[in-house]
Write a structure and sequence with these properties.
Largest sheet: 6 strands, mixed
Strand order of the largest sheet: 3-2-1-4-6-5
């Protein structure tokens, strides 16, 4: 692939133009090194300020040297670089998944410190194809088979992948032509990893005409289908959903007339909006909730309770999930509630925790809110020790206020942002 065409591919990933400040995650491998050099070429006119970051997961003895090589390469290009070290793995669970989550969190925190809102990643068409194969093995639905998104928001940062239509071999040819070296991760040959198995399987499938380019096209088509389903889910939510006291209240009659896939998406987004999870709940758990909707019963999933009452399907925080959550007034409670007093003068012994059964006893008129009992008990309350000072969601008093972080409209926005 000519360098000019590669540059064009990268520019196309930013339809509104390159941001003034852009971060790039560079591992030292061929994909990210190629992206680094293309973006560096776009910096020459001074309109783009590029900063690079490398995460050393501390899992291989070579990792520190590879990070140092990236730093040296960035220095020769005049690009500021920082290495972040992760030492948070306790040896349990899925290593690659834990490392991926940590990488996003570390880079997002770095970007925030640098005042960077957008970070470029070097995923390729080969990565897209391998991801599709792995998700096929997990019997994924439309969302899973839509693959790696070109653009996504996570931890408050926009992540952009400009190389999703470029093959890995094309990038290495580009680097070779420029006499640029890169590192090869030895784990790329370790068949103990699911991705490497998918990579080898992809090679075997090429004889059937199933190659990376074709699978990347399939992923893009599935992404279009996903977007269409999300749009229909958004329209349905605007018609039948209301936000009340941090809970999602859905018209049961209208909800039951929808296709199961739209019901599933509504429930999944409600769960994620309420519990703040990045990943969707397990499909089996959601299937149980769909059955509960049709049978007018209830259930729980990922710390969120579903309850049918008064012609509505209520979804709200499960009390058990927040019973031990205590926050100072300076921090969001449960990651979503901002509790404040307009005068601001509150002693240090004042905290925010769930209203609970004990607090509800001090709110004899709570039924007038129309909330289910469980939803009322899971709202934030202001306490000094065991003394209830205020229940600002159920009974605004003495100037106390409780507002949802991002506001009620953030629920509807979330329906289109996944």
């Amino acid at each position: 692939m000519p360098a000019s065409h590669l540059t064009q591919q990268v520019r196309a990933a930013f339809p509104k133009g390159l941001p003034e400040c852009l971060g790039i995650a560079v591992s030292g491998g061929g994909d990210s090194m190629a992206l680094l050099h293309v973006l560096q070429g776009l910096c020459l006119d001074g309109s783009l300020h590029l900063q690079a970051v490398t995460v050393d997961h501390g899992l291989r003895p070579e990792a520190a040297d590879e990070a140092a090589q990236v730093a040296k390469a960035c220095g020769s290009l005049g690009i500021p670089h920082e290495t972040l070290v992760w030492d948070g793995w306790d040896g349990s669970g899925n290593l690659q998944n834990a490392a991926r989550k940590a990488r996003f969190a570390l880079i997002a925190a770095w970007a925030a410190r640098q005042g960077i809102g957008t970070v470029a990643l070097g995923h390729t068409a080969d990565d897209q194809a391998e991801t599709l194969l792995m998700r096929l093995a997990r019997e994924a639905g439309v969302d899973g088979l839509s693959g790696i998104p070109k653009r996504t928001t996570r931890h408050g940062i926009l992540w952009v992948r400009p190389l999703l239509h470029v093959r890995r071999a094309q990038l290495r040819a580009y680097l070779t032509a420029k006499a640029v070296t890169w590192s090869e991760d030895p784990s790329n040959e370790d068949t103990g990893f699911e991705r490497i198995k998918a990579r080898q399987a992809l090679g075997a499938l090429e004889g059937l005409g199933i190659d990376a380019a074709g699978l990347a096209t399939v992923a893009e088509q599935m992404q279009q289908a996903k977007n269409a389903l999300n749009w229909q889910t958004f329209l349905a939510a605007k018609d039948l959903a209301r936000i009340e006291a941090g809970a999602v209240a859905l018209c049961a009659r209208k909800l039951k007339t929808l296709p199961d896939e739209i019901i599933r998406r509504l429930l999944v987004r409600a769960i994620q909006w309420i519990n703040g999870a990045v990943y969707a709940p397990r499909r089996g758990a959601v299937a149980n909730l769909i059955a509960a909707v049709k049978e007018d019963t209830g259930g729980t999933a990922e710390g969120v309770q579903l309850h049918c009452q008064g012609g509505r399907v209520w979804m709200f925080r499960e009390l058990n999930a927040v019973a031990q959550t205590v926050s100072p007034l300076s921090e969001p409670w449960d990651g979503r509630w901002l509790v404040s007093h307009p005068r601001g003068a509150v002693d240090s012994g004042t905290t925010v925790r769930a209203l609970g059964d004990a607090g509800l006893l001090h709110c004899p008129d709570w039924r007038e809110t129309g909330l289910p009992r469980g939803a009322a008990m899971a709202t934030p309350a202001v306490w000094r020790g065991e003394s209830l000072l205020a229940a600002p969601v159920l009974k605004p008093q003495m100037g106390w206020q409780a507002k949802l972080k991002g506001g009620e409209d953030s629920f509807f926005a979330a329906l289109l942002s996944h």
